[in-house]
Amino acid sequence: MHQVVVDGLEEFLARTASPELRQQIEGHLKVCATCRAEVSEMQGIAEMLTVLRPQSQWDVAPGFYSRVRNLIEEQTPAPLWAAFLDPAFFRRTAFACLMILALLGGFVISSDTDYGYGVPGPETMIAIEQNTPFQPDNPVPDQEMMLVTLTSYTQ
Amino acid sequence: MGTLTGVLPLPAFESKAAGRTRVDYQNTPEGAIVKRAQAGDEVAFQMIVERYQAKVFSIIHGIVRHRNDVEDIAQQVFAKVYFSIRNFDFRSSLITWIYKITVNECYDYLRKKKVRKLVYESDLSEDEVRRVENTEPAGERNTRVDNNLARRDYVLKLLAKLSEEERLLMMLKEVEGHSVEELAGMTGMNENTIKVKLFRARQRLVKAAQRLERAPGLVAG
User: Does the predicted interface ipTM exceed a cut of 0.85?
Assistant: First the structure.
């Protein structure tokens, strides 16, 4: 498109061009088929765009603002702490605690052994020793017993 | 025709008014309301909704023409306005900003719904329906509505080929009927910039129309 048309295009299409400018552009369009065709297409499209003009005044139904507010509230992301106020949160937490308790209980029961109170400590060993009947004629077993006791304790 | 448009220089518009139409929207009464809304004032936001709701409804109806969906889209528009009003920087007027959100929301709606076949009666206002029913035979009526629908569908497809900004400018210019000077005031751009952008948008529309005529499937929006 030639500059003479480009410069005054908006005024020409809007029909607000001064008589001189209009005459100038129309004069050029008479002799330039390229510009004539393009301007014609632009005019056609500009006219077609008017189909999007609203045809009537719209009456907004009462209560529109409150409906907008409701939508805003629905779309507002909840703050993090709000999750703690949710009853579902309490239900889930209680369920998780119960599950953990059940798991721990199961583990304790399954890992229970015959030791009862576990590996005997030194006090237990000494008590066992003290309950062993004394044999004055043969002190060797006592000494051996003591050695076994001490060895097993350090191990 | 299309051969020269791509290589010739962009318009070197000479405008004495260039740049002088810039408006300081921050210091207008509307700017004060917007600032209050930005600070979280619900009353100010309500004022904005009530001031522009009718305009937003009209814009949506002009593009979408589904009477039943107009309010849903309008609600969505104002919800977006609410959530993003803090980002409004006063470079354009508030209505220009809302207009842009509205047009984008309409295009989102059309994309989601893939509206191609519109309900005939919803295309017309109630008065028009009444008038048409009393004056036109059914055949003529359907043909006229069909033509309108086809035109709008075609125009929407063409506009979909523009950038958001170009689409906004074209709609404000050709649909709303604003002058270049008014557009400069509304958008905060100078008149030369507006003219250049409009020229580019018009060229794009012509090219899209030519492609559509050659192969209708190519421009499907």
Answer: no
